[in-house]
Write a structure and sequence with these properties.
heterodimer, A: 249 residues, mainly alpha, B: 115 residues
Chain lengths: 249, 115
């Protein structure tokens, strides 16, 4: 972040954030949302319900789970439980970007509103690009990206509802593969600390393994267990390095 | 009357509130974290592991038509693609293009599109 960029106005930072829409990750997310609109139609949701769901939840896994539990005839409490378990991951995701996004004067109500726009794509955007923006403009810069991304995603549901179901299976399958492959590359490329790389490997290995053991809590266990293990290994590594440095003196 | 709006109420309560309560708790927790604090290391590690667990599951247990493709093909495409990405200077475009090309070639070779 160069100090001379500080005199750019908040609006100009908002627009810079908006420009993040014209990027590979945003494009990939829009294609996965096309997939969701096909799924919503097949599961019996109306267009208005699918659109409302996309904007109100803005987390594809939670949306897929809610559609699935609603379609199975579960009551509202059971739906709430299934969705809320899958959304626990939002807490560490939001908590890990807030310290980078705020200044001492950023009002909490603004962060509460902005947190709604944090899902995986916006989280990757935040951890990759926030550090290049002057601190006092980071919240408005993120708002520019997040609000535009969520609004566009919701529009995609409105437009593609009913169209996507007619895609040939090969194309639908290939589109589905884009999302995980993109996350693999972008999260590894943005990892500047060894602890993040360790946590990356832990998550990749533990996620599918625990899915075989505890299909309902797999992601939660993989996240807390794998993340904690990565943190402890990294802490031991940092301590050891400090120890050898002190010893060689 | 209520029947007409019932689905919207379910989406609001079991979707919006069930998800955003964790986002709000994230703001509360994040507000207490110092940018270089030891606790933030742990929170970052947990968030990364969570996201990668979701990601790896999408490859190993995909939904929809990709579920019918062989596991070795998905793992091979993602694994070899990631190795090429690491070996060529970690460019995200490479990390996306190579696995996608391998998957398409593999699907074509196994006759996936014919079904």
């Amino acid at each position: 972040m160069s100090p001379d960029s500080d005199d750019r106005s908040a609006l100009s930072w908002f627009l810079t954030g908006m420009r993040g829409m014209f990027s590979l990750p945003a494009l990939i997310l829009m294609t996965s949302i096309v997939g969701f609109s096909a799924f919503a139609l097949e599961s019996g949701l109306t267009r208005a319900e699918a659109v409302f769901m996309s904007f109100a939840i803005w987390a594809l896994p939670a949306q897929v789970i809610l559609v699935g539990t609603m379609a199975s005839g579960a009551n509202i409490a059971a739906c709430f439980l299934a969705v809320t378990l899958s959304s626990i991951r939002m807490m560490p995701m939001v908590a890990s970007v807030i310290p980078e996004m705020r200044t001492k004067r950023t009002p909490t109500w603004l962060l509460l509103i902005l947190s709604h726009f944090v899902a995986i794509t916006a989280w990757v955007f935040a951890i990759t690009t926030l550090r290049n923006v002057p601190r006092e403009h980071r919240a408005v810069y993120f708002a520019g990206f997040g609000v535009t991304l969520t609004t566009s995603g919701t529009l995609v549901v409105a437009i593609f509802y009913g169209i996507a179901a007619s895609f040939p299976p090969l194309i639908a399958g290939v589109l589905f593969f884009l999302t995980p492959v993109y996350f693999n590359a972008s999260i590894w490329a943005s990892a500047s600390q060894p602890v993040v790389k360790l946590a990356f490997v832990m998550g990749v290995v533990l996620g599918p393994l625990l899915a075989l053991v505890t299909p309902e809590f797999d992601v939660l266990y993989a996240g807390i267990g794998g993340g904690t293990a990565a943190y402890l290994i990294d802490r031991w590594r940092r301590k050891k390095r400090r120890g050898t440095k002190a010893g060689s003196r | 009357m209520i029947d007409e709006y019932w689905t919207f109420i379910v989406i609001f309560v079991a979707g919006f509130l069930a998800t955003d309560v964790w986002r709000w708790l994230g703001v509360v927790a994040g507000n207490r974290l110092n940018e270089e604090s030891e606790a933030l290391y742990w929170v970052r590690a947990v968030a990364t592991s969570l996201v990668m667990a979701v990601t790896a599951k999408l490859i190993v247990f995909p939904n929809g038509t990709l579920a019918e493709s062989p596991l070795w093909l998905r793992l091979g495409a993602a694994g070899i693609g990631f190795a090429v990405f690491l070996a060529t200077g970690r460019k995200v475009a490479v990390g996306v293009a190579v696995p996608m090309a391998l998957l398409i070639a593999g699907l074509w070779w196994t006759g996936f599109g014919d079904r």
